[in-house]
Amino acid sequence: MTKAEVIVEISQKTGIDKADVAASLEGFFAVLKNSLAKGDNVYLRGFGSFVTKYRKEKVGRIISQKKSITIPAHHVPSFKPAKVFVEKVKNADIPKLP
Q1: How far apart are CA 7 and CA 31, in angstroms?
Q2: Could you tell me if residue 2 is inside a domain?
Q3: What mean pLDDT, rounded, does the chain reach?
Q4: CA 84: distance to chain centroid?
Q5: How confident is the model at residue 55 (pLDDT cuts 50, 70, 90)?
Q6: What is the number of structural domains in the chain?
Q7: In angstroms, rounded to a whole number, what is the distance separating the alpha carbons of residues 25 and 33?
Q8: Confidence (pTM)
Q9: Is 29 part of any domain?
Q10: What percent of the chain is modeled with pLDDT above 70?
Q11: Is residue 21 part of a domain?
Q12: How far apart are CA 86 and CA 48, in angstroms?
C-alpha cells in the first residue's frame, strides 16, 4: 500500500478532503522525523514506538576492493510495534504466498 492509497482510504472512511488528509499525514511525518532527529522518541499507544538506536563504531569490509573501512558510530531510527498491533497482524487471515 502506498502513501497515496493510504490517503485515499482515510479520505473515504472519514469524509475529509484528500488534500487535508495529505497535509495532515505530511505534518505527522515531519513531526516524527524532527523528533527523532532531536533524539526524542515518539510513543503511539496501541500502535508502537518510534525510537532511535545507537550503533557503535565498527569495521566494515569492501569485498570487491579487498579493504576494510571504519563505519563511525551513529544513530538509526527504529520502530517497535505495540503488543496489540502484533496480535492483530498475527491473528489476521493473510493469504500465503506461493
Answers
A1: 18
A2: yes
A3: 94
A4: 17
A5: very high
A6: 1
A7: 12
A8: 0.78
A9: yes
A10: 100
A11: yes
A12: 9
